[in-house]
Design brief:
The chain is mainly alpha-helical. Helix content is about 75%, strand content about 0%.
Length: about 120
């Protein structure tokens, strides 16, 4: 449950970072550039290059993209496995359920012994 909350918070943070960066960058696309020399003047964007911000944004973008893929894969593995990530105490939980069923009289002693052997193998 806590893992899903962290995943949701991480995805929300990544989405908000992408949306805010698009909003921040969009005025640069609306500026009328000079189209002399086929638009290849002054750093290929007519003087509207991103400079250091573009390099920093590229690093942040790819970092978020890779982290998002990792979170997505881990989340998919966690939800499709049908068990806790560690998988510890699976046998002891089954044994506790078996003992409870035997104590309630749902199963006989012979059934209890055969199921117990199956769990312990």
């Amino acid at each position: 449950m806590a893992y899903q909350n962290r995943f949701q918070k991480g995805m929300a943070a990544a989405l908000s970072a992408i949306v805010s960066s698009i909003i921040y960058i969009s005025p640069a696309f609306a500026q009328p550039g000079r189209w002399d020399n086929g638009g290849m003047g002054r750093w290929m964007m007519g003087g509207w290059g991103m400079g250091w911000f573009g390099m920093l944004f590229m690093i942040v973008f790819w970092g978020l993209a890779i982290a998002g893929i990792i979170f997505l894969v881990r989340w998919l593995l966690y939800t499709t496995s049908g068990r806790a990530p560690s998988g510890v105490n699976t046998g002891s939980q089954a044994m506790a359920i078996l003992e409870k069923r035997y104590a309630c009289g749902e199963i006989t002693r012979d059934q209890f012994e055969s199921m117990r052997k199956d769990i312990l193998q």
